Amino acid sequence: MFADLLRRLTDPAPARLPDADARLALGALLVRIARADGHYSPEEARRIDRILGARYRLDPAAAARLRTDCEVMESEAPDTVRFTRAIKDAVSYEDREAVIEALWEVVLADGQRDDEEDALMRMVAPMLGVSDPDSAHARQRAAERMHS
After folding, report:
1. From residue 85, how far is each of 26, 67, 81, 91 by CA, in Å?
2. How far is 15 from 13, CA to CA, in rounded Å?
3. Residue 126: predicted pLDDT
4. Do the beta carbons of residue 129 and residue 88 sit within 8 Å?
5. How many CB atoms within 10 Å of residue 93?
6. Which is the CATH superfamily of the domain at 18-146?
7. DSSP state, 18?
8. b or e along 67-76 (b: 16 or more beta carbons within 10 Å of the residue's beta carbon)?
9. For position 129, what pLDDT does the model report?
10. Cβ partners under 8 Å of residue 56, min gap 6
11. Mean pLDDT, rounded, of the chain
């Protein structure tokens, strides 16, 4: 099911992704950050559902189905470096910046920041073309939203 999308993502010159494929790729990145610390918590899965639901205007059941597909995609995706660079080339800057904010929401969802998650965020943000200051601002916005 995901082989064609993965092939297109890892093509030397990926084209802009259709919306459905971009949803899968970006959702898979959310799952990857949630799994980075070796503990994929129910809070993180629920946060991913909320992010996907809000971003794509999905009801809770559809968001959960999309997350399940994203979990499969993440498990089949290449290493984070290739996967993230491919997303950068295939997704608009505005979407990538919003993804960084969503990634921070997932990192913060279980109430603790782990070294593995922080390290992955430090690696992923520049690979997506998002600067450290922009990533820090995205983290602050995500933290504020989580506490409101």
Report:
1. 12, 21, 6, 10
2. 6
3. 92
4. yes
5. 11
6. TerB-like (1.10.3680.10)
7. P
8. bebbbebbee
9. 92
10. 23, 63, 66
11. 85
